[in-house]
């Protein structure tokens, strides 16, 4: 940190010294001429040794007198000029002193710390604000002439500077001083090669910025906890030191002692020693980077006997180190009891059959009774099995049905985080925002994958099979994953195709995206190929990679849930092992055959067989959102946002205003009517949530708004409902459709698409 103390007055100018010296020389010359004059006069008047002729002596005296007179007059004129110059010099000196005093007063009046260095970067002058920094820290103020490097070194070593932050995009370096104040240093060179340094106090700005950031983080954390607390499973996160860093209410209720939460406790403190020893092998395996799933019977703190299905998923940082693991525990006691009951019933049934068979001869009546009992037992078994299946299906349908409530807070958190990422903060704040964004991505991917599996199991997702051209689908997917591959140091090659196939375009795209995601995840180096092979009545859509390959005995296992085959020596990832399981379920739903071929050490190829189709003439083009080329011309776009969730409204407004849009938010049509003139106010896009309060929906709300306008506005409908009925309805209305959670980049693409008409 550069600093200066008060310096003494500047020395007099070199011109003033030269004039004083010249005056002294002229006065000495004047005295010498006077002495010569007096000597000549004395010699002429009193000289007797030499007797010149009278006329010559007189003539000589006259000449000498004339010369003395001329020199005396010249000397007097010079003296007058010197006196005038001296007066001008005195006035200039007074003016310079006045200017210097005014400059000092101006420097002292500056609210910022001020430091001035000369062309050798040695200290010249400081103001009192800068000197107060040093006095508050109890450090002597550097004296005049101190080099700038010595000043910086002294500020660091003395403890005056507590923290230092710099960024290439920032205007200057920011310091935290020992008095708790934040200052920003800016440097400006002078014309003489010197340096002016200003220290501006930005403490209030930093405090306000930190308060807003902390509030946003707390809000995100609150929504994450709301989501996990309503999931019917035990969820927790355990750090590398085996301490419980997060858990939902269900986990806390099962493992927490009365009046005590398991948060902050080590696992060997949460569980009984004997039970912890049973868990230890699985804990060591997940800390080694492997996902594990296993079943254990255990007793709760209140003595309940339950049977739990546990899944441990490692959390890996950017360096491939395991920094903790996620815990997902599901209660399968009812399912286990049903299985045991079935096993016991079958055992009893076999015993009874043997007994009755041995006594069959003479016990015909008893045999008929036994047959009746067997039928009753089988009926009870079938009923128990159906009950178990209904219970399991009920849980699956519940998780699929609450996807809107799960994704709503995540959607708000994503909007706020995206808005924060577009703001300019210090490096430390930007790192925190990126960490929050990464954590939200992990939670979003985890819940999204679980909800997708549940929806597929519950039959919520119904395929919308139509004939379509593969050209746009393949181009969009290749454009999306080419950047992802490039970021991992891989090359993605793409062979386009214009084949017409018959399938569900969105579900088929999901299969290809999962293929490409796995290829990028497990390919260390080389390239990935996306292409289509034509056959007689179908096409093979394939993804080739140059990864480590898959052992032959594992080719069917990779399509099971929570199964991942990680080659030896490769880095662990954050996947759940559900990508190919989703592919398997979607392909069965569509009736498309999926196959895989692999050679260890060379790579793998994943294929999906899709039947050919024939396009039907359609008067209206689809309104599904496809990727278009991004254009940043959104300045001044007028957007109305309608959502019953105030957090979503605030998040969407923050994000859109960051893109220079003019945004009006409302929770209902009456709320919007109170804020703008619906009939006459100009608007470029209406962005509405499908699910509103009081059994209302976004379609009706938009119809009511456009019904009052002479020219209807474009509409973007946002929903967590993936049903084909709603999709078809939105398409028939000519609206754009986007599913939650909203991706900011995709939303920006849609806005550009609408604004370009």
Automatic annotation (TrEMBL):
It comes from the Bacteria. It catalyses: ATP + protein L-histidine = ADP + protein N-phospho-L-histidine. Residues 638-755 form the Response regulatory domain. PANTHER family: HISTIDINE KINASE, TWO-COMPONENT HISTIDINE PROTEIN KINASE. CDD domains: HATPase (cd00075), HisKA (cd00082), REC (cd00156). The modification 4-aspartylphosphate is found at residue 689. One of its GO terms (molecular function) is kinase activity. Residues 367-396 form a coiled coil. Residues 1-23 are annotated as: Disordered. PROSITE patterns: HIS_KIN, PAC, RESPONSE_REGULATORY. Gene3D superfamilies: 1.10.287.130, 3.40.50.2300, Histidine kinase-like ATPase, C-terminal domain, PAS domain. Its EC number is 2.7.13.3. Residues 290-344 form the PAC domain. Residues 401-614 form the Histidine kinase domain. This is histidine kinase. Keywords: Coiled coil, Kinase, Phosphoprotein, Transferase.
């Amino acid at each position: 940190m550069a600093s200066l103390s008060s310096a003494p007055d500047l020395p007099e100018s070199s011109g003033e010294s030269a004039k004083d010296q010249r005056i002294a020389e002229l006065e000495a010359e004047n005295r010498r001429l006077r002495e010569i004059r007096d000597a000549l006069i004395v010699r002429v008047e009193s000289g007797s040794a030499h007797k010149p002729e009278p006329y010559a002596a007189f003539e000589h005296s006259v000449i000498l007198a004339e010369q003395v007179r001329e020199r005396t007059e010249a000397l007097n004129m010079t003296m007058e000029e010197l006196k005038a110059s001296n007066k001008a010099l005195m006035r200039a000196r007074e003016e310079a002193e006045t200017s210097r005093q005014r400059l000092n007063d101006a420097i002292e009046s500056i609210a910022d710390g001020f430091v001035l260095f000369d062309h050798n970067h040695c200290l010249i002058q400081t103001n009192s604000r800068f000197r107060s920094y040093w006095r508050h820290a109890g450090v002597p103020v550097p004296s005049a002439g101190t080099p700038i490097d010595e000043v910086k070194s002294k500020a660091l070593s003395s403890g005056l500077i507590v923290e230092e932050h710099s960024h290439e995009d920032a205007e200057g370096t920011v310091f935290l001083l020992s008095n708790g104040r934040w200052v920003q240093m800016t440097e400006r060179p002078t014309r003489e090669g010197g340096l002016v340094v200003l220290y501006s106090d930005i403490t209030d700005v930093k405090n306000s910025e930190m308060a807003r950031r902390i509030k946003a983080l707390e809000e995100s954390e609150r929504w994450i906890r709301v989501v996990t607390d309503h999931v019917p499973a035990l969820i927790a996160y355990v750090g590398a030191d085996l301490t419980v860093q997060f858990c939902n209410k269900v986990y806390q209720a099962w493992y927490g002692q009365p009046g005590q939460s398991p948060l902050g406790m080590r696992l060997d403190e949460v569980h009984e020693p004997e039970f912890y020893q049973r868990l230890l092998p699985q804990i060591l395996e997940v800390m080694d980077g492997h996902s594990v799933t296993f079943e254990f019977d255990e007793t709760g703190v209140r003595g309940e006997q339950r049977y739990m299905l546990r899944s441990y998923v490692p959390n890996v940082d950017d360096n491939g180190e395991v920094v903790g693991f996620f815990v997902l525990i599901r209660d399968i006691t009812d399912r286990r009891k049903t299985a045991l009951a079935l096993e016991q019933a079958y055992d009893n049934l076999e015993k009874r059959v043997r007994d009755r068979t041995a006594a069959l001869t003479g016990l015909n009546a008893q045999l008929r009774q036994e047959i009746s009992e067997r039928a009753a037992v089988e009926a009870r078994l079938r009923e128990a099995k159906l009950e178990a299946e209904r219970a399991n299906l009920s849980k699956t349908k519940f998780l699929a049905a609450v996807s809107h409530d799960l994704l709503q807070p995540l959607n708000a958190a994503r909007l706020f985080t995206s808005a924060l990422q577009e703001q300019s903060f210090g490096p430390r704040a930007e790192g925190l925002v990126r960490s929050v964004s990464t954590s939200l991505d992990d939670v979003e991917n985890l819940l999204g994958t679980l909800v997708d599996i549940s929806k597929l199991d519950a039959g919520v997702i119904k395929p919308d099979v139509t004939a379509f051209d593969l050209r746009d689908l393949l181009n969009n997917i290749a454009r999306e994953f080419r950047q992802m591959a490039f970021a991992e140091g891989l090359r993605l090659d793409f062979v386009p195709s214009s084949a017409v196939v018959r399938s569900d375009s969105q579900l088929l795209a999901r299969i290809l995206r999962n293929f490409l995601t796995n290829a990028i995840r497990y390919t260390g180096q080389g390239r990935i190929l996306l292409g289509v092979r034509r056959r007689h009545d179908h096409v093979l859509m394939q993804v080739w990679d140059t990864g480590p390959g898959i052992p032959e005995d594992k080719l069917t296992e990779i399509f099971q849930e929570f199964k991942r085959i990680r080659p030896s020596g490769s880095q662990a990832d954050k996947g759940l092992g559900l990508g190919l399981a989703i592919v398997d379920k979607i392909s069965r739903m569509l009736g498309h055959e999926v196959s895989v071929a692999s050679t260890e050490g060379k790579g793998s190829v994943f294929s999906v067989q899709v039947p050919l189709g024939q396009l039907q003439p359609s008067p209206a083009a689809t309104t599904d959102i496809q990727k278009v080329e991004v254009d940043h011309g959104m300045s001044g776009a007028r957007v109305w946002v309608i959502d019953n969730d105030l957090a979503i409204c605030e998040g969407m407004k923050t994000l859109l205003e960051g893109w220079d849009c003019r945004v009006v938010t409302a929770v209902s049509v009456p709320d919007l009517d109170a804020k703008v003139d619906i009939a006459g106010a100009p608007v470029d896009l209406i962005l509405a949530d499908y699910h509103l309060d009081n059994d209302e929906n976004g379609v009706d709300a938009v119809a009511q708004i456009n019904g009052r306008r002479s020219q209807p506005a474009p509409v973007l409908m946002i929903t967590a409902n993936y049903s084909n009925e709603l999709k078809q309805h939105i398409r028939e209305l000519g609206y754009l459709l986007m599913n939650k959670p909203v991706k900011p980049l995709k939303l920006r693409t849609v806005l550009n698409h609408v604004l370009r008409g």
